Each structure stands twice: as structure tokens, then as C-alpha cells.
Amino acid sequence: MVGLALVGSQAGHLLAYQMRFGAAAQQVQSTGAHSYFPLLVKTTLGAIAAAVLAGLLLVGLARVLGGRRVRPVSRPSFVGLLAVLFTIQLAVFAGQEVVEALIAGSPVGSAPDLLLWGALGQLPVAVIATLALRWLGAHVESAVGSIRDAVAALRAAPLPALTARAAYATPDRALLMSRVAGTSLAKRGPPSSLHISTH
Q: What are the domain boundaries of the chain?
């Protein structure tokens, strides 16, 4: 949750600057103390995409191994989760703005200014992150349980033992011949004289 909040704070930072500076937001965020920001946003978006794909891969793997749809487990409270994500994102945004102002040697924005722009940028991102975390988190938790159960079942299943069984337990030649050739050879006598017929 903390990782998602840190990643989400950068998306909220981008949104806050877009609302505050409009078309000039890209210019403001790529110069001076903000010059690190474009690379940070690309990395953040890549991390979000990788996390979502990894979660979906786990859910898909659990579905394949279990042969059934993954049922989500209980989900945390939406309001509680939103409050935690929003608080962390807002704190990161404010701290980031203060550090950037100190590095640039410019005056630090007032607390109400930071809270206003931070809330405008961070709240929509926190809502989306909360929805995603509740859905994906519940499914991933259930998927991990299903995968764990499937692996435990594979470990517990005994492997069939290979047994060697002799085809013929006795070396008796007569018994062997009777089994192979059948009973007709045992009752057969010497060859009789050939009948030559003349027509």
C-alpha cells in the first residue's frame, strides 16, 4: 500500500501541475529543480504497469492451475484505504515541493497552497488507486492461496511405484509350452501315414 501511494503521488503531482499551469505544465516540470520529474514519471508509470501485469498473471495462473474462476477474498474498507493512500500521497507531494523549492533557492509555497493543489491532484489518483488496489488485491490474495493449494496438492500426491513382475514365475518348460502353444500340442501324437488319393 505504501509503494502504491508513493507511485500514485507522482501521478497526482503530474495532475496537480496540469491543473495549475495548464499547457505550460510540461515546461515547468522539466526545467530547473523539476528536471528529474519526466524520468521519474516514466519510471513510475512503468512500475504501475509491471505491478498490474504481475497481479493479472498471478490471477490467470491460479485460474489455470485451479481450473476455475478465482473468487476474491474479503476486501478492506474503501474509505479506510482511500484515507491512507490519500494521506501518504499528499505528504509525499508536499515534501517533494518543499525539497524542490529548497534546491532551487526559491520561496517555499504556503501550507494552504500546497494542501489545495496537492488535494486537487492527489485525491482523484487516490480514488483510482483505491479501486484498483481493492479489486486486484482481493483477487491476487485469493490467487496466491489457490496457487499454494495446487502446489501443496502436487507435492502430497504419491508417485506410482514401479513394480517388476515376472511374466512366468516357473521355469518349467512344459508349463511354458502349454501357455504359449495352447493345449493342442500337448495332445497331438506322431504324424499318421499320408493318404494319397488317386483320381
A: 2-156
